[in-house]
Amino acid sequence: MYRARLNGPDDFDGWRDAARNFAMAGIPPDAIVWESGTDAPDLFASDTPPAAVVHGTFPVPRAFLDLAEMAILHSDPERFALLYALLTHMRDRPGSLEDRADPLVRRVEALAKAVRRDIHKMRAFVRFRELADTDGPRFVAWFEPEHHIVRTNAGFFMRRFASMRWSILTPELSIHWDGETLTEGPGAKREDAPMDDPVEEIWKGYYAAIFNPARLKVGAMLSEMPRKYWRNLPEAALIPELVAGAQAREAAMIATPPKNARRPGNAATVWQALREEAMGCTRCPLYKDTTQTVFGEGPVDAPLMFIGEQPGDQEDLAGRPFVGPAGQIFDEALETAGIDRTRAYVTNAVKHFKHERRGKRRIHQTPETPEIQACRWWLTQELELVRPRIIVALGATAGRALLGKAVTISRLRGAPIALEGAAQGWITVHPSYLLRIPDAARKAQERARFIQELRAIAKQLEAIG
Ligand code: URA
């Protein structure tokens, strides 16, 4: 028996080095005892490194390393052995990673999936409480992850709360950020973290404001926000009351005309919290290779909303919608049509920049239905918060996001469409379409048509009041 001793329960590099050596030496999975820093050592295993080292390499697909990096964070004590078994299995049966029916692949994928879910839960459910010390405000949160995800998630919290001083305490370890450096400390107890402060009121207001009784599905809510997290969430205290009142609120919402149906609470605070939350969005994989989420912007009571497709290269860097070349065309057209952009809410159907890298360039890629659907959650929140009287979808992706189905712009453009809740929808071309027309005369013609539509929208807006 050989012993592989790792530096901790999430020591992926240690596992990879040891696994490579064992695999090169031809050691079978059942001849290795894997121990992470926290396990008691196996008395019968030997620390002697494998003797029969075979020189050479065997290729390991990148997809395996990505999968292993996630799965290793699972709390299952068997994970190191399972991953090593999969590694040797892949060597004996190249291509087995693509075989979705392979029991070993399925088992490891299930581990990785549970870890991803836990990472997402931590990002969504960590709630900071404010403390004051001599250096100013400091924020402390308590969280109980199911798996060993805290180190992996630290980067997310550093980026998201870069200018705050914060600590996240968990039973396994604590992490601390002072605005410049991340440090680690030992695990903590729930009592070590404060439980009440004014930040909670903001969360409660936010949650009450975005809670839509017409959408109440208790099963789905429990699966998204499992009960075990409730006790750390200030807003969870509101759930029983909100659920109990849901039927009455739904009836009241139906009976109230939309113009008066604006929800309680400070809409700007709610928008701010929503935007903050969207900064950590991992609802689809697009977040992985972008600079940031580009959330919508504009007055939260704007009567007019424009929906674009997705941020482009410049929007991704600036963190604001329509500031690049398409934004310039858009701004000029709005000005010619007499629409003040600062009085409109401008957003996108998809809030991360989908692209492919070619050398140093990032080339735009059209988002696909799953990405549009995943991001529709945010668009719905924006629509429900702003409640614009007129919503303009710029291009086919925005049209799909607004109407929930594929649209043919040439058939729908030029006339208003009645939407749920008495809002009026318009579908027109995307400004970047105008950018791409090579023929100058046609370009001018199409631009004039776009401006004409914007003028019609401005007129409707005036009529609606
Ligand atoms: N194109 C869009 O659809 N949105 C932007 O924000 C920029 C370009």
Describe the structure.
The protein is of the alpha/beta class and 465 residues long. It folds into four domains: 2-120, no CATH class; 126-192, no CATH class; 208-255, no CATH class; 264-464, Uracil-DNA glycosylase-like domain (Uracil-DNA Glycosylase, subunit E, 3-Layer(aba) Sandwich). Helices cover 44% and strands 14% of the residues. The chain has helices spanning 12-24, 62-71, 79-92, 103-125, 150-160, 198-210, 218-224, 227-230, 239-244, 246-255, 267-279, 313-318, 325-337, 369-386, 396-403, 409-412, 431-436, 440-464, and strands spanning 2-5, 32-35, 129-133, 136-142, 166-169, 173-177, 182-186, 304-308, 344-348, 355-358, 361-364, 390-394, 417-418, 424-428. The strands form four sheets. The chain has a five-stranded mixed beta sheet. β10 and β11 (361-364) form a beta hairpin. α13 packs across α18 (440-464). It is globular. The N and C termini lie far apart (80 Å). The model is unreliable at 254-265 (pLDDT under 50). Uracil is lined by residues 308-312, 315, 321-322, 324, 326-327, 348, 432.
Observed structural traits:
14 strands, 44% helix, 18 helices, binds uracil, five-stranded mixed sheet, alpha/beta, 465 residues
Helix content: 40-55%
**Helix segment tally:** 18
Q: In CATH terms, what is the architecture of the largest domain? A: 3-Layer(aba) Sandwich
The ligands found in this model are: uracil
In quaternary terms, these chains amount to single chain
Mean residue pLDDT: 85
Number of strands: 14
Which runs of at least 5 residues are low in confidence (pLDDT < 50)? 254-265
Categorize the overall geometry.
Answer: globular
The secondary structure category is alpha/beta
Give, in spatial order, the strands making up the sheet with the most strands: 3-4-5-6-7
Number of domains: 4
* Largest β sheet strand count, sense and barrel closure: 5 strands, mixed
CATH topology of the largest domain, anyone? Answer: Uracil-DNA Glycosylase, subunit E
Instruction: Kindly report the name of the CATH homologous superfamily of the largest domain.
Output: Uracil-DNA glycosylase-like domain
Q: Cα-atom Rg, whole angstroms? A: 26 Å
Strand content: 5-15%
Quickly name the level 1 CATH class of the largest domain: Alpha Beta
First-to-last CA distance: 80 Å
